[in-house]
Amino acid sequence: MVFRILIPSERRLCDRVFDGLAPYGDVAFVAAVRTQALQLISFGDTVAAASRAPERLFRVIDMYEAVRDLLPDLDPVFSDPYSAALRAEVSAVCNTLGSSIKGIFMELENLIRRDPARVAVPGGGIHPITRYVMNYLRAACGSRQTLEEVMEGDLGAVGAAAIAVDPDRPTSSLAVHIAWIMDVLHKNLETKSKIYRDPPLASIFLMNNGKYIIHKVNDSELGILLGDEWMEQMMSRVRRWSMEYQRGAWAKVMSVLHTGGPGIGSIPAKAMLQKMRMFNGYLEEICAAQSDWVIADEQLRADIKAAISDSVMPAYTGLIARLRSSPETARDLFKYTPEDVQAHIQHLFEGAAK
């Protein structure tokens, strides 16, 4: 109100009272408005100089936008040499607020780096730091125009003309900054994954967090900022973690199911029965542990179960068929039918439901 109504009104009043006496009118105008203007400028400086905690970003952005939008209106009001210094001070506040926004983004990086790797998320679920950072960045992208402007660093030009933002091709500074934050988050999550003593569970943890990140990026302007190449790289990581989980968790099961030849004669029936007992033990061990693990994304959970089934079921069905064809094999030694094994696989990763 002060800059939009009171100060312009004071300018008009001085121009009328001192009509034809421009220098006196300009001096009177500055004397009348200087105190109020400096109070507001001081308030802007205080906002910019306060804590750079990440949650203050949106308050500082609001202040920055308010000051930036004032600048074009101040040009005709502070056009004389006596009041030009006030206009310059308002512009300087805008620069200071912009620097504060950059500093807050740097503090977000520091917050991620400092987040300790102490307690593992139960079941390999989504870590709170992942939720915080992704939801924070999504909310920040609601002010993308302003962030593009600030990150470009051309703060001296603000107020004259806002920087145009191509919706399909962002300016590089903000995109690079967001990508850097994502890289810091990725490294932090990899460090946290080492807390898990079971490597397959560490892979589940990375998969869950990676898939959550992908979902949040796809569902916001972060997808535009990070681009298709970044997204493909992230999806490739999730696929790699999925394969690492399958190899780590099911390798010993698959080694037991391997019979080494097309016929039952390639391995003695007694050895085949030992394989069956080992398979039963491994299956029970895996299902007891992994039923409490979590795969948060429904489609990812279904894909992992399908991949396990595609690997295990043909080999297990083949082993059953070979044992049944041997006269030395007792039928009551088949503890699990193929349907039972499939049911066990389908009950994996129910930690969230429990």
From TrEMBL:
<dbReference type="InterPro" id="IPR004140">
    <property type="entry name" value="Exo70"/>
</dbReference>
<keyword id="KW-0268">Exocytosis</keyword>
<dbReference type="GO" id="GO:0015031">
    <property type="term" value="P:protein transport"/>
</dbReference>
<dbReference type="Pfam" id="PF03081">
    <property type="entry name" value="Exo70_C"/>
</dbReference>
<dbReference type="GO" id="GO:0006887">
    <property type="term" value="P:exocytosis"/>
</dbReference>
<keyword id="KW-0813">Transport</keyword>
<dbReference type="InterPro" id="IPR046364">
    <property type="entry name" value="Exo70_C"/>
</dbReference>
<dbReference type="GO" id="GO:0005546">
    <property type="term" value="F:phosphatidylinositol-4,5-bisphosphate binding"/>
</dbReference>
<feature type="domain" description="Exocyst complex subunit Exo70 C-terminal">
    <location>
        <begin position="2"/>
        <end position="346"/>
    </location>
</feature>
<dbReference type="InterPro" id="IPR016159">
    <property type="entry name" value="Cullin_repeat-like_dom_sf"/>
</dbReference>
<protein>
    <recommendedName>
        <fullName>Exocyst subunit Exo70 family protein</fullName>
    </recommendedName>
</protein>
<dbReference type="GO" id="GO:0000145">
    <property type="term" value="C:exocyst"/>
</dbReference>
<comment type="function">
    <text>Component of the exocyst complex.</text>
</comment>
<keyword id="KW-0653">Protein transport</keyword>
<comment type="similarity">
    <text>Belongs to the EXO70 family.</text>
</comment>
